[in-house]
Please model this.
Amino acid sequence: MDIISRVRPPRAVFVNHPVGRTFGPPHDRARNEAVLEAVLAELPRFDRPGEIRDPGIEWSPDGSRAWEDELRAEMLHDH
Model:
């Protein structure tokens, strides 16, 4: 086991969004700010090192994973 696999963040907030889109779709300022506010609101709730909090933020309101196909198509189209 290498050192990288043993390193844990001191604290983290999990946002169930595509990689590179943590705060939401590009140019969706309202959504970007809402995600940032939700993540920052988690900070005072941490009570132990290594804790990962999940504020329940989903890319799609219904929890759908359809964004995976949409993102894949977008990435393939750009190349």
